[in-house]
Design goal:
Its EC number is 6.1.1.17. This protein is α/β, with parallel strands linked by helices and 525 residues long. The chain has 19 helices and 11 strands. The termini are far apart. The chain binds one RNA strand of 75 nucleotides through α4, β8, β9, α11 and α17.
Length: 525
RNA sequence: GGCCCGUUCGUCUAAUGGUUAGGACAGUGGCUUUUCAAGCCAUUAACAGGGGUUCGAUUCCCCUACGGGCUACCA
């Protein structure tokens, strides 16, 4: 589609502030952002707060927070300076400069404002009236009751529900009289019934709609606020949006928008309807499916990099076998022509795997600072990440992080994986101390042996690899099966049937504590 | 009900008018190993159905089925 804007790419993410931002909305924002970055365009945040009943206080801040978490910087429109995206993060996307206060001043940046639709009421009124003057819209005074009745009748007759044009029959004098009398009214589109409206969607291709089936949509509500249809078209035009990137559910109302552009005599932007994310039951992802607020995933211990990567692959892929992508690689590869038409299902298992991959890819130092940052951020409500290591020194933490890293899938896995290291008294069933093929007494002997081996180790040699060598050498020289000696010792020091590596654990515990725990085990037998 | 969109392994998906229909997650089996995890190797598993078009269709067209979305003075 030819662009009227000298090919300058301008896209907007235009959520309505009705609560915490949904995974699906954010994925749409991500596509738009990626598209903007790929084409060196502008990513705009516009707030569509035209439904006064549904607006939820604090939503805009939450939206900003979600965008910030994923590193989707806003170039123009609504921003908050309480949240700062740092390009110098230790780990590419992690918000190191996060500030907890949510009462920061929202600011608007850009020359096309205001970017809150509630601040543009006079603009919409002007354009709605312009359409009336041009004969493409009309005043409607029908009451809710009357509309309800029309709908019921149509339903009974199995007709498509549509406004029946009741107020279309009013002549100019009558309209003026009603208007002057302060009668409640809306402005509706007047849609010609002939022909069809053709959309050439960037993703869906050509889609045809019969004009006779299009409803006379309300443009301006009786409270003076515009409906989405008017507001979006007017703003997208005024803000010189080049590509309208939005979810599939908007496809059916697109002909109304196309008609509006024609009525105004405006050039049309390109439209790209992206597939909707479905839950495991194949219906639109919603609260029934558990976590749908994008920020819930932060609380659940997912990394923004992983979330970003995963979301990018829901309905899009680069047509190669590569699946792990950095932000820059995604920017380089992403384009609308590779977006799928079918609706993908959100698969938490693949997200988990991907998150684990990102965790493993980090250096232990990076992971440590990420864990520390996240623990600090979620302090209070979710200070569970560090668990028993909440007040540990950085030095002590380093080895623990390394030990947990391989088996962590999410950040919140850290505490349960490492708790046993800090417990004063381990609580476990003595039976699990005994490896297969050994009797209780034999097991006891093995633990005794371990104490002997340990007693000969100098304090300065108390270190993972030296411990490993000492024990393995002992086994070899004395013809002891590794499992028969090492299993009981490992259970003794961890209290767990399944645990991290014995020598890493003993290293962290220290000689004294290790001996204590082995003695404790012996006494249990 | 009407309108619109969609349909390749369970899931995310690739490819092609002629292929053993490829990869990843999950599953299963094995290796490794002090256990678990990780890692490595192997493996199960898909073109919704029916008509065309064609020498040949998973691929192009039509129909059906199924799934989804929309059908508000909500977005």
């Amino acid at each position: 589609m030819a662009s009227k804007h000298n090919n300058k790419i301008r896209v907007r993410f235009a959520p309505s502030p009705t609560g915490a931002p949904h995974v699906g909305n954010i994925r749409t924002a991500l596509f738009a952002w990626l598209f903007a970055r790929h084409h060196k365009g502008t990513f705009i945040l516009r707030i569509e707060d035209t439904d006064t009943d549904r607006v939820v206080a604090g939503s805009v801040e939450t939206i900003l927070e979600a965008l910030d978490w994923l590193g989707l910087e806003v170039d123009e429109g609504v921003k908050s300076f309480e949240l700062q995206v740092s390009s110098q993060r230790l780990v590419s996307l992690w918000p190191t400069s996060f500030k907890k206060e949510k009462n920061g001043v929202l600011q608007e940046v850009g020359e096309y404002g205001p970017y809150f639709q509630s601040k543009r009421l006079d603009i919409y009124k002007k354009y709605a009236e312009e359409l009336v003057a041009k004969g493409h819209a009309y005043y409607c005074f029908c009451s809710e009751e009357r509309l309800e009745q029309i709908r019921k009748e149509q339903e009974a007759k199995k007709l498509p529900p549509k406004y029946n044009g009741h107020c279309l029959t009013l002549d100019a004098a009558e309209v003026k009289k009603l208007l002057d009398g302060g009668e409640a009214h809306v402005i509706r589109m007047k849609i010609g019934h002939e022909g069809e409206t053709v959309l050439n969607d960037v993703i869906k291709g050509e889609v045809r709609f019969k004009n006779s089936l299009i409803d006379d949509q309300v443009l301006l509500k009786s409270d003076g606020f515009p409906t989405y249809h008017l507001a979006a078209v007017v703003d997208d035009h005024l803000m010189e949006i080049s590509h309208v990137i939005r979810a599939d559910e908007w496809l059916p109302s697109t002909p109304k928008h196309l008609l509006l552009y024609d009525y105004f005599g405006w050039a049309k932007p390109a439209f790209a309807h992206v597939p909707i994310i479905l839950g495991p039951d194949k219906t639109k992802l919603s609260k029934r499916h558990g976590a749908v607020s994008i920020l819930d995933y932060r609380e659940a211990g997912y990394l923004p990099e992983a979330m970003f990567n995963y979301l990018a692959f829901l309905g899009w892929n680069p047509k190669t076998d590569q699946e792990l992508f950095s932000r820059d690689e995604l920017i380089k590869e992403f384009d609308l022509d590779k977006v799928n038409k079918a609706n993908p299902i959100f698969d938490i298992k693949k997200l988990n795997w991907m998150n684990g991959q990102y965790i493993k890819k980090m250096t232990a130092n990076e992971l440590q600072s990420v864990i520390l940052n996240e623990a600090k951020r979620s302090e209070g409500s979710h200070g569970l990440i560090l668990g028993s290591f909440a007040n540990a020194q950085d030095d002590a933490l380093k080895k623990v992080v390394k030990l947990a890293q391989e088996r962590m899938e999410k950040l919140v896995d850290f505490a349960p994986l490492t708790d046993f290291l800090r417990q004063d008294k381990l609580d476990y069933d003595a039976k699990i101390l005994i490896p297969k093929g050994l009797s209780q007494t034999q097991c006891k002997t093995q633990l005794q042996t371990a104490l002997d081996v340990i007693s000969k180790i100098e304090a300065g040699d108390w270190q993972e690899e030296k411990l490993r060598k000492t024990f393995l050498d002992y086994c070899e020289k004395n013809n002891v099966k590794r499992g028969e000696l090492l299993w009981p010792v490992r259970v003794a020091v961890t209290g767990l049937a399944n645990s991290p590596d014995l020598f890493a654990v003993m290293d962290i515990l220290g000689k004294k504590k290790s001996i204590e725990r082995i003695r404790e085990a012996i006494s249990k037998l």
